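Reader question, answered in our methods column.
A reader sent in the components of a multi-part assembly and asked whether the whole thing could be modeled at once rather than chain by chain. We filled in our standard form and ran it. Here is what they sent:
COMPLEX SIZE: three components
ENTRIES:
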Amino acid sequence: MFDLVILTQILWTGIATASPFVLLTAGFALTLKVTGLWNFAQAGLMAIAFYTMFFALNALGLPVVAAVALGAAVTATAALVIEAYGLQVLRNRHSGNLTFFIFTLILSEFVIYVLTLAFGTEPQTLFKSILSPVSIIGDIAVSDWDKLAVAMAATGLALLWGFMHGTREGKFLTAVADNAPLAELYGISAIRAYRVTAVIAALFIVAAMYLIGSHGGIVPNTPLELVLTAVIATLLGGIGRVFAAAAAAVFLALIQSFSILFIDSRWQNLLLYGFLFAAILLFPRGVRLIAIRR
Amino acid sequence: MDYLVTLGVLISIFVILSTSYNLVIGYGGLSTVAHPIFFAIGAYTAGLLSIHTTIPPPVNVLIGAAAAMVASVLLAASSLRVSGDYLLIASLGFQLGLLQLIKNLDFTGGPGGLGAIPGTFTGPLRAPIYLAIAGGLAILTVLAIRGIVRGPYGRAITAMRDEELAFTALGRNAMSLKIVIFAIGCGFAGIAGGVYAYYFQYISPDQFEVLQSAAILTMVVLGGMGTVYGPVVGAVLLLAIPQAITFLNLPSSVMAPMQGILFTLLVLLFLFLRPAGILGGSAKVRL
Amino acid sequence: MTAVLRISKLNKRFGGIVVADNIDLTIASGEVLGLIGPNGAGKTSLFNLISGVLRPDSGGIYLNDVSIVGQPLFRRARLGVARTWQHMLLFRSMSVLDNLMIAPRHYAGESILRVAFARGAVRAAESAARQRAESILLRMGLTDTLHLMVTDLPFGQQKLIGLARALMNDGPLLLLDEPMAGVEGAAYETMQRVVRQEAETGRAVCVVEHNVSFIRDLCSRAIFMANGKILQDGSVEELIASASLTELYFGV
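And here is the structure of the entire assembly that came back:
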């Protein structure tokens, strides 16, 4: 009954579909790690990223590379503006967590309402067709989109890992994440770290939205759901553990994919939230597979 | 005329919601956004009991409130053990998870909602009677919360919000205080839910989503967090203004997002320029 | 003289830093014990261990021979451990009166059920607390500040209110964390006088201070701490005279 080919197909497609979520989760978890903030404004950034690229490709008729570059520029700029003129102002005022939450959530909603006014509520895709050329590799159907998705996620994670462990700028992020006041004493600028993080998250978001937007329809409200999956994966991975969160995103997607074999498709979303409940009640500090002694 | 009465009922229900939410976040200082889910628990409990049993409506509403309180205690007790900040995400997860459950179960009516909730009163006086009931409950709620936050209990709440460590070191049980405040707030939300279910006779999961959280939050922030009457002002504004805008006769595809833009913009402006809200005079509430 | 506080082999470390190293200590009723030592010696950590902010890794803490080491922070206050804080931690949104009214060992307004259904008992308790608050302020000469916001008071008076708040707890033990820091003149005299009065009524008092003349005037006995250890326990004069301690303290 469980054909190896079918299992492998589900595994591959699951990993490919998970890839944009891995990118979104990585950006979200990194932001949480460095700034200590559950940044729901990233939903607004996701919407900005998608609709900028959509507008560039369809209304302006730009080639793909230019459209993506424009999307990256606009999203990164928006992220920096939010960070410098929104979040930093609240930080200077020693605002509480609830204030940050209100700001980031309401800001995302504002952005989404504006985009609803501009683009309507019809589902949109980046390209006219979401079909992608498929090749058969060893009995498994592999589409070009699949390959691009996995490549982008893998490259993104690898670059992030290299950046954080191999460059000074990246190590500063970890220093600020661990203890911002102490890092400041050593001459590391926390504000700079926050801005670098904002740009990295923005780039990951653009990459993810390109993938999601070329694979299925997006409505202005979609980013709110997307950011929620990032929240769940981050919770499961453990606050402060970016790559564990990315792994959790893959894990969640695979669980959902494989569950088709066992349960009704309508329960799939419930499974996701079942994990969320479990994470909240049983693993508030994240699932620790390897005990790290620091 | 009937439309104005319905608006009055709606405003009363949201006064209960915003005032009780303000108790939790404005006075109690607890970070949570899940107020709509306790509204939902009250609504669904009362609705389901009225469909399947012969228990009288007021009792159903009370049972709904009790169910909301029990759920809130479970949520708060498990999340506050981790940290106060954790409650924020935990409450969001709880809200979404429970809504997902409601959407997937058959007996709750699924994503289509729960309809045909039995009527209570018939005839032309139905709406005004409900206005009296809802309005009366709203007034009671405001008075109750005012009573809680003044006097010795309110002193404890303020002290806890100011300096929790010193508060605890004086011999006060901060954890228990937070859980009780949360339970009281959510209990009132449950009552509002019961009334809502009985009046409209139809409830569905998307009435209790994150957008609803944002709406109640907007009422509290605009009206003035940490003041007793601020949320009342916020509720009236947030419900009355869109009604006023409908008279502009814009197409609905423009109107809905325009209302959204108006309110989110107002919240953002207030957050940065006047965090104490419309009624909040001094910057006593550290936002 | 009975031992109000007894600490036995108390240990606490944070990673590589030892804040309490096999501490043995007793404080008797009516005694004012000075706790001196360089910064980072573990003095405030000791207070945090006694009051319950920190849990020790091992060892015992006894209040009037009853073990309190397993009790959470809020319960220790109810058992009679009162303390002040280096950074005062007064309740900023409230008046002097409210800061004191929230501070007795047992607070009637803590239970919503009692507030709602036992109004008479709550009123009585509030009235008693108010009387206690007024008498403490009278002793300090601060009766006029009763209805002022604590944030409107000058620094020295704020510190006195911090002490007053701790004194609302009528328990046997009083821990004062740098009560004199930044205080001079009339407030200094008042602080000294009130602390001495408390000791005379039988309270066991422990004071962390850098102000040596305060310690000398007030304390009969003092201990010197460094690196989480008690290095010397004796009369204040002995400690001050000790050359090795001076070296540790001042680095000379």
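What stands out: The interface with chain C takes residues 148, 151-153, 155-156, 158-159, 161-163, 165-174, 177, 180, 184, 284 of chain B (CB under 8 Å). Residues 174-200 of chain B form the longest helix (27 residues).
Send us your own complexes using the same form.
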